[in-house]
Write a structure and sequence with these properties.
It is a single chain. The protein is an all-alpha fold and 425 residues long. The chain contains 23 helices and no strands. Helix 21 (373-386) packs antiparallel against helix 22.
């Protein structure tokens, strides 16, 4: 982090939840070092500011540190906050890394048998979570050094065999990811497609041997990717039955591997989102409610200030509003929007332009359905005034048409010509 004046520390501290801030204070007390009180005081001072003002901070803390010390203390605090959050937030990657650090320490102390225990544990965890690059690091790192030290011919041969297998896994995984990215980029660009040239390109992707063949030995990740590619292809080519079929396959894959729901949360939420869309289009509202409950359950997998929590908020809110709109439960929907607006204050800054457009549009559609045209226009104007519409072509076209329709329904006939001209621009 740069020692020049910046709001980087301010943004980091402001992003923390109450629980994370509390943990930082506990972490600071445990890791007592010289100058601890000063950097905790700096933390408190920054946390209290609504807008970052470095001159005010320097003046406020002038009795605690000199101006020349301030950039150093700010940089130190930044790193201490990150250290605390690394300790607070657990992940598979962090757990594997922790085990490898222990194994490395024991190896350096010459305690090789103890080293073997933690190394094997790290390797099993990496394999079970398909962290193939980490497995390669283990093979070519500590495991290789142990085999050389022990002059183990069998150990070296085992490493070579395993490396070939891992490289094959990596190659297959990358191929699946590339195929997925091709079809997903086409989806972001066009949504549903009708152009022959685009359909031809999609058919070429879907005809790849990796997509056509059925291999029961595929890893969870590659099986997920294969179903995802096929489901997205059928969605884009307007084959709702086949799209739903493969989306449901992904759901069952997650239900058979419940630990993956948390470790691959974004993929799981994406699957629930796709199922909710399919159920809505097929008017299967009882089944849709089942998936809405799954969204709520998934909230327990993640902290309230995390990226996963933001994604769940966006998708769940969208589908709840859509459900109320399509089932005619308009009064329930209006009550729900009151709750949504409170949560939106917390999440809005984290939503992407596309996510905000998506959610604001659904709110506008609900109000249009409820006959609240002024509220509908309010949310459409928020899209037009606050969001750069660099989104999918089908989104932009729909928003433009809907904006004109809402003004027409409001009786703004004298404004229609100028509105159409502004939309065309």
């Amino acid at each position: 982090m740069s020692k020049t004046s910046s709001n980087t520390l301010f943004l980091l501290i402001k992003s923390l939840s109450k629980a994370e801030k509390r943990y930082f204070k506990v972490f600071s007390r445990i890791h007592v070092i010289s100058g601890q009180n000063r950097y905790v005081q700096l933390f408190d001072a920054v946390e209290q500011q609504k807008n970052y003002d470095e001159q005010k901070l320097v003046a406020e803390l002038k009795d605690k540190m000199s101006i020349s010390q301030f950039p150093v203390m700010k940089n130190y605090l930044y790193n201490q906050v990150l250290n605390a959050m690394e300790s607070y937030h657990s992940s598979i990657h962090n757990e594997v890394r922790r085990l490898l650090h222990r194994a490395e320490f024991l190896y350096e102390k010459g305690l090789n048998n103890q080293c073997d225990f933690f190394l094997a544990k790290a390797k099993r965890l990496a394999y079970s979570n398909e962290l193939y690059f980490t497995v390669m690091e283990i093979l070519r790192g500590l495991e290789y050094r142990l085999s050389l030290q022990r002059q183990s011919i069998n150990g070296l041969k085992k490493i070579h065999r395993e490396e070939k297998q891992i490289l094959a896994c990596i190659q297959t995984t990358l191929e699946y990811q590339n195929l997925h990215d091709k079809i997903y980029c086409a989806y972001l660009a066009a949504g549903s497609v009708k152009k022959n040239i685009t359909i031809k390109e999609l058919k070429k992707t879907i005809s790849h041997p990796l997509i056509k063949r059925i291999d029961k030995r595929l890893s969870f990740g590659n099986r997920y990717m294969r179903y995802m590619i096929k489901g997205l292809y059928f969605h884009m080519t307007n084959n709702a039955t086949q799209s739903y079929h493969f989306t449901k396959k992904i759901f069952h894959l997650f239900q058979k591997n419940p630990e993956k729901q948390k470790s691959r949360l974004n993929a799981y939420i994406s699957n629930l989102n796709n199922l909710a869309i399919d159920c809505s289009e097929k008017k299967q509202y009882i089944e849709l409610c089942h998936y809405l409950e799954k969204f709520k359950e998934a909230r327990s997998f993640t902290g309230i200030h995390s990226e996963g929590s933001k994604t769940i908020f966006h998708r769940y809110s969208y589908h709840v509003l859509n459900y109320f709109s399509k089932t005619g439960r308009l009064l329930d929907g209006i009550e729900y929007i009151k709750e949504l607006k409170c949560e939106l204050k917390q999440y809005e800054i984290k939503l992407s332009e596309l996510e905000k457009t998506d959610l604001f549009m659904q709110i506008a559609i609900f109000f249009f359905t409820a006959g609240e045209i002024s509220q509908c226009l309010h949310w459409l104007n928020r899209i037009r005034n606050e969001i750069k519409l660099d989104v999918r072509v089908d989104f932009k076209t729909f928003i433009m048409a809907f904006y004109i329709l809402a003004h027409y329904e409001s009786g703004h006939y004298d404004l229609l010509q100028s509105i159409v001209k502004s939309v065309e621009r």
